[in-house]
Amino acid sequence: MKRSASQDAEIEALLANADYVGHPLHDALTSLYRQLQDQVRQLDRVTRISDGFQSAARREAGSLTERLNKQVRQLEKIARISDGYQTMLQDLNKRLEHESTHDPLTGLANRRLALSRLLQWTAGSGALLCVALVDVDHFKQINDLQGHEAGDRALVTIAERLLDPAGGAHLVARWGGEEFLLIWTGIDLAQAEQQAQCLREKVQAELPGGNGESFHCTASFGLARWQPGEAIDALLRRADAAVYAAKHAGRNQVRVAP
Amino acid sequence: MNELRIAGTTSTPTIHCTSVPPCVRLQGDSYPENAFELYQPLMHWLQAHLDAADATLRMELELVYLNTSSVRVMMDVFDLLEEAHRSGKSVSVRWYYDPRNERVAELAEEFKEDLSLPFEILPHP
Predict the structure, then answer these.
(1) Which long-range contacts (CB under 8 A, 24 or more apart) does A186-192 make?
(2) Which domain holds residue A238?
(3) Which of A84, A236, B29, B53 has the least CB density, counted as fewest CB within 10 Å?
(4) How confident is the model over A193-210, as pLDDT tens digits?
(5) What is the rounded distance in angstroms from the CA atom of residue A168 to the CA atom of residue A193?
């Protein structure tokens, strides 16, 4: 039950009234009332101390939460930046891998990638695979007469034409200086020869020279079908011999290796 | 104050601190086994240098790759510089990057976030 200020005032007034002094209830009530006041004061004190502890604990918890939040934010930032560096490394790795397997001038696969694909595709004993070595005709003359820049442009143009979907090659690679390698899988020698003829026609074209005049460019193709069990070196030697035969027979033609 | 020079390796950057002119340079990749050990002399040098009431400092960075603990250390380094800046000292950061690798600039931007000190991110001249 709640004591009100008016109740307190009424009791105080009754106890102070001289008419009641000496009454047996007066002393008992006075003593009881003092005890009550002491207990109320103690209760107030305990409540004040307890409130003090509670608000200190609240402040402490607040600053701990703040510190924790700050550390979480810092950790998130470290993780975010660190993830960024990992992605950067992965991108650099991909770029390096691409650079180590592609020719910077033409963007074609380089010899390393072509050899690795040849090994992969000839791993099965029954694979149908044909290759053609392509050698640009009179390339030295192009470089000597039109300049190296025109020579480079010619290689880029030839690379683009060898990539023509009509040629159907599964891989077009720059094999060396003015030599390219075409690989067909899943088609026989007769079909590969048709595709090679198609590409030979696409390659021959007028190209702009270094001196303002255009020049004619052609290439000789040496085609060979991989024989199951044959070493890659042996296959490429046969293709190379076929290129030599094409050159010998007047260039700008496809020769098939026996 | 003594000059601090720590030679770089393939996995640690070159660290070079001079009082005259007041400059700190870090250059290279940073993926040491123990980043806190590697950067402790730098942290001590920085704390001692920035303690002076009239301290000024320019930090020039050409860092490329940082592993996680190096990221953590760099954040501590920037906190030190930020504190000095907020107490009125003239400190600044220049982070140079190779324009062929824009990601470094993006990551430097992440470090710069939340800092109020002058912090420039520039492509290599």
Answers:
(1) A186/A128, A187/A128, A187/A130, A188/A128, A188/A130, A188/A225, A189/A130, A189/A223, A189/A225, A189/A256, A192/A130, A192/A132, A192/A223, A192/A225
(2) 111-256
(3) B53
(4) 999 999 999 998 787 776
(5) 11
How many Cβ atoms are within 10 Å of B49's Cβ, its own excluded?
Answer: 21
In which band, very low, low, confident or very high, does the pLDDT at A123 lie, cut at 50, 70 and 90?
A: confident
Q: Are A192 and A225 in contact (CB under 8 A)?
A: yes
**What is the mean pLDDT of each successive set of 10 residues along chain B, which is 125 residues long?**
89 95 96 93 96 94 95 95 96 95 93 95 90
Which ipTM did the prediction report? Answer: 0.85
The answer to whether B104 contacts chain A (CB < 8 Å) is yes
C-alpha distance from B98 to closest chain A C-alpha (Å): 13
Q: Are residues A80 and A196 in the same domain?
A: no
pTM: 0.65
Shared domain check, A51 and A120: no
Q: At B94, which CATH number? A: 3.30.750
Q: Distance (Å) from the C-alpha of residue A102 to the closest C-alpha of chain B?
A: 19
Chain B CB contacts of A80 under 8 Å are 110
**Total domain count for chain B?**
1
d(CA A255, CA A246): 5
The domain boundary, picked from A45, A72, A101, lies at: A101
Q: Which of B67, B110, B114 is closest, CB to CB, to A84?
A: B110
Contact present, B74 and B108 (Cβ < 8 Å): no
In which residue are the tokens 């023509």 written?
Answer: A164
Parent domain of B82: 4-123
How far apart, in whole angstroms, are the C-alpha atoms of residue A209 and residue A231? 40
Q: E strand or H helix at B55, and its extent?
A: none
Token representation of residue A161: 């034409």
Q: d(Cα A119, Cα A213) in Å, to the nearest integer?
A: 43
